[in-house]
Amino acid sequence: MYPPSYEEFSQRDWDDETVEGTLSFALVGLGGFTREWVVPAIDGSEYAETTCVVSGDSEKAQEVAETADADVSLTYEEFENGVDSDAYDAVYIATPNATHLDLTEAAAEHEKHVLCEKPMEISADRSRQMVDRCEEEGVSLMIAYRIHFEPAMRWVRDLLSSGEIGDPVHVRGSMSQPIFEMIGPDPDQWRLNPELSGGAALIDLGIYPLNTTRFLLDADPVAADGRSRSPTDGFESVDEHVAFTVEFENGVLGSYTASQNAAISSHLHVTTTDGEIRIEPAFFGDVDVSITDGERRTTVTFEEANAIRAEFDYFASRVLNDRPLEPDGEHGLVDMEAIESIYESDDVLEPI
């Protein structure tokens, strides 16, 4: 079998220290993802606990507080004003993208660490302000790229780093979903409002193959180009479908597609000088990793892991032990700069 052994990545390979106590969280934004995935993940966590929930709907906040066994429920205004801020140590933000900056600044002002959902914000400038404010207040800022905690991805990253199947040359990736079936049929939703979302296919879904490539290669983009189209009613102001290419600092080329109005699909294929790694599906469910190396072909199936729970435990362990963490705000900022470049290239019809 290829080194490193994939069995070790079925465990939490990053969990190599003694952690005392737990980190208490305020969950800011109580949409379906938070209620259905994050609350149960924290409930099963070793190092994190939910002590506060925040929503614009006070009735919803009280209901989720009961489910999460949280002592405090707040409105957004109460949260920003620091009401009951002694009830939590850190903040998890899962609200419309354009609200992340204000909520992060409020958390930092009250000296709370921040775990913020991706995409980081709607622009690189607003993302930079998030980084700067957290640095000024001396609090940690991490972007919630759960794929970094998927055992399959961590194994592939080590396999590529080992050089066992040569050097990466080209990466192809895709992520798509039918948003009106997956999220809701109403076109009047924040994901299709550019002032709240910053875009649709690219910023919400294209970020998956883009960021995962960065993680696997440990390399950042240096140039990008993209084209989008939006032929369907409801997508007049945002990108419905997108195709984009990226050049990375190590010379690897990436080709990607994303759609908010297509069948559920995701994959990531890495072609190397000696073979190929195919990850499919790449971003949800059980993951098959197929490796072709000369005449050998090996497939390893990773059962769906609770990457969200691992993400919270990792963040909590690093904060409790006062250690650096990743992916931090600077990492998220690189994605936002690349996304802006792709949108700009689509506007001017030239590579950026």
General description of the model:
The protein has two domains: 12-146, 3-Layer(aba) Sandwich (Rossmann fold); 151-304 and 328-348, Dihydrodipicolinate Reductase, domain 2. α4 runs parallel beside α5 (124-137) and α9 (201-217) crosses α11. The strands form two sheets. It has an eight-stranded mixed beta sheet with strand order 8-9-10-7-11-12-13-14. Strands 3-2-1-4-5-6 form a six-stranded parallel beta sheet, with helices on both faces. 35% of the residues lie in helices and 27% in strands. The radius of gyration is 20 Å and the shape is globular. The chain is α/β, with parallel strands linked by helices and 352 residues long. This is Gfo/Idh/MocA family oxidoreductase. Belongs to the Gfo/Idh/MocA family. Residues 24-145 form the Gfo/Idh/MocA-like oxidoreductase N-terminal domain. It comes from Natrarchaeobius chitinivorans.
Gap between N and C termini: 41 Å
Rg, alpha carbons: 20 Å
- Name the structural class: alpha/beta
SS field, number of helical segments: 11
Task: List its traits.
352 residues, alpha/beta, Rossmann fold, Dihydrodipicolinate Reductase, domain 2, 2 domains, six-stranded parallel beta sheet, globular
Topology readout:
Layout: E1 23-28, H1 32-43, E2 48-54, H2 58-68, E3 72-74, H3 76-80, E4 90-93, H4 100-109, E5 113-117, H5 124-137, E6 141-144, H6 151-162, E7 168-178, H7 179-182, H8 194-197, H9 201-217, E8 221-229, E9 241-248, E10 253-259, E11 261-272, E12 275-280, E13 287-293, E14 296-302, H10 307-320, H11 329-348
Parallel strand pairs: 1-2, 1-4, 2-3, 4-5, 5-6, 7-10
Antiparallel strand pairs: 7-11, 8-9, 9-10, 11-12, 12-13, 13-14
Keywords: Oxidoreductase
Protein name: Gfo/Idh/MocA family oxidoreductase
InterPro entries: Gfo/Idh/MocA-like_OxRdtase_N, Gfo/Idh/MocA_domain, GFO_IDH_MocA-like_dom, Glc-Fru_OxRdtase_bac, NAD(P)-bd_dom_sf, XacA-like
